[in-house]
Design brief:
There is one protein chain. The chain is an all-alpha fold. It folds into two domains: 2-54, 434 Repressor (Amino-terminal Domain) (Orthogonal Bundle), CATH 1.10.260; 64-98, no CATH class. The chain has helices at 2-14, 19-26, 30-37, 45-54, 67-75, 92-98.
C-alpha cells in the first residue's frame, strides 16, 4: 500500500493540486487525503479508483508473473530511458471531437 500511496502523492503534486483541492473533488477532508498518502488508512477500492482517475492514473491488476515484463515495457531500456510503449498522441481534431 505504501508504494501506491507514494504514486498517488507524486501524481497529485504533478497535477499541481493540494491535498485540500483533491479532497474537495473527492468529497473528503484534507486530513483524510493526508492519511491516504501516509498509508495510515485502508483505502477502499472505489476511493482508489476515483482518486487515480482524478490524477490521470489508471489502476490495473496484472498477474504477478507478468510484473517484470510490464515494468520493463513501461520503464524502457536502461541506456535509452525511453519506454518501449507510449500512448498515442491525439491530433487537435481528435481532441476537439472528445471535448
Amino acid at each position: 500500500m505504501k508504494e501506491i500511496a507514494e504514486i498517488l502523492k507524486k501524481a497529485r503534486k504533478e497535477k499541481g493540486l493540494t491535498q485540500a483541492e483533491l479532497g474537495k473533488k473527492m468529497g473528503l477532508p484534507q486530513s483524510h487525503i493526508s492519511k491516504i498518502e501516509a498509508s495510515e488508512v485502508d483505502l477502499r477500492l472505489s476511493s482508489l479508483q476515483e482518486m487515480a482517475r482524478l490524477l490521470d492514473l489508471e489502476p490495473m491488476l496484472i498477474p504477478r508473473a507478468l510484473t517484470p515484463a510490464v515494468r520493463s515495457v513501461i520503464s524502457g531500456r536502461a541506456k535509452e530511458r525511453k519506454p518501449a510503449w507510449q500512448p498515442d498522441s491525439l491530433s487537435e481534431s481528435d481532441e476537439e471531437e472528445l471535448a
